[in-house]
């Protein structure tokens, strides 16, 4: 019986993991914002379609999630849109020169779900609609209950709200044991991950918010949108990549 239950759990995880790669749902329960409010935010575009979020960490590098690149398609079909509130127009599109996926990335569990998009040209940073975000440092502590802000584009499950307009939502950081317990039979929550959200659901990031930034109240990026069960579901908080755990890797790739 235990092996049967485990097999069902693994099957559910694989189906859910596959769905996370599809650009379908995004910020739920948030508010409309402008790029001037989140000038570090970028849209990762594949074949002229927004698929993921990312953040400007230097004038040549964008931090995102590994699953935003793995299995998507050839690198020459990727672009990064910088400096626009709208995910489909405005700002500047930059050609992607290379994508650095964390060498320990696990496509089943989403452990080490980090990638760095290297651009062909430098971003013309204006500090109004495009600005470098400050990253948390190695092993920097993220207190339970910290207010975290997630931004991104897409479906809000409200037909009166545009899917193309940038939105943001704030959620509290959950204690790690509670995070692990929430996904006990679905996936492994590792030390490279943390959870944020409300136990009753209602506010969350979701699929094509993947790779987008998670900021604390000091506007320091502490996480990257990674995975979860559906969107804003009760008992299933969003799971985010913990930047402090891979800070040295980021520095080695980007010198940031």
From TrEMBL:
Task: Write down the top EC class of this protein.
Answer: hydrolase
Q: Which GO terms describe its molecular function?
A: serine-type endopeptidase activity
Which top-level group of life is the source organism from?
Eukaryota
Query: What's a BP term from Gene Ontology annotated to this protein?
Result: digestion
What is the recorded name of this protein? trypsin
PANTHER family, per the entry: GH13245P2-RELATED (PTHR24276:SF97), POLYSERASE-RELATED (PTHR24276)
The record's section on SMART domains has: Tryp_SPc (SM00020)
Family according to the record: Belongs to the peptidase S1 family. CLIP subfamily.
Q: What organism does this protein naturally occur in?
A: Lutzomyia longipalpis (Sand fly)
Q: What is its EC number?
A: 3.4.21.4
Q: Does the keyword Signal apply?
A: yes
């Amino acid at each position: 019986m235990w092996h049967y239950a485990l097999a069902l759990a693994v099957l559910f995880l694989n189906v859910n993991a596959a769905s996370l790669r599809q650009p379908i749902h995004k910020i739920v329960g948030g508010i409309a914002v402008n790029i001037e409010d989140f000038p570090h935010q970028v849209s990762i575009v594949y074949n002229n379609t927004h698929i993921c979020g990312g953040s400007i960490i230097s004038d040549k590098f964008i931090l995102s999630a590994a699953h935003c690149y793995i299995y998507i398609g050839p690198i020459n079909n990727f672009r990064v849109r910088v400096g626009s509130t709208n995910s489909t127009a405005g700002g500047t599109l930059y050609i992607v020169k290379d994508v650095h996926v964390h060498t320990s990335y696990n496509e089943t569990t989403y452990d080490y779900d980090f990638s760095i998009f290297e651009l062909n040209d430098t971003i013309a940073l204006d500090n109004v609609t495009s600005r470098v975000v400050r990253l948390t440092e190695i092993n920097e502590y993220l207190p339970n209950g910290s207010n975290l802000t997630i931004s991104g584009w897409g479906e809000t499950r409200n037909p009166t709200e545009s899917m193309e307009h940038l939105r943001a939502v704030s959620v509290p950081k959950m204690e790690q044991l509670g995070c692990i317990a929430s996904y006990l039979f679905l996936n492994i929550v590792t030390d490279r991950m943390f959870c944020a959200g409300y136990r009753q659901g209602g506010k969350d990031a979701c699929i094509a918010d993947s790779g987008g930034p998670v900021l604390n109240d000091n506007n320091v990026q502490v996480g990257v949108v990674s995975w979860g069960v559906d969107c804003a579901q009760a008992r299933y908080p969003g799971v985010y990549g913990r930047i402090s755990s891979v800070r040295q890797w980021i520095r080695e790739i980007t010198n940031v």
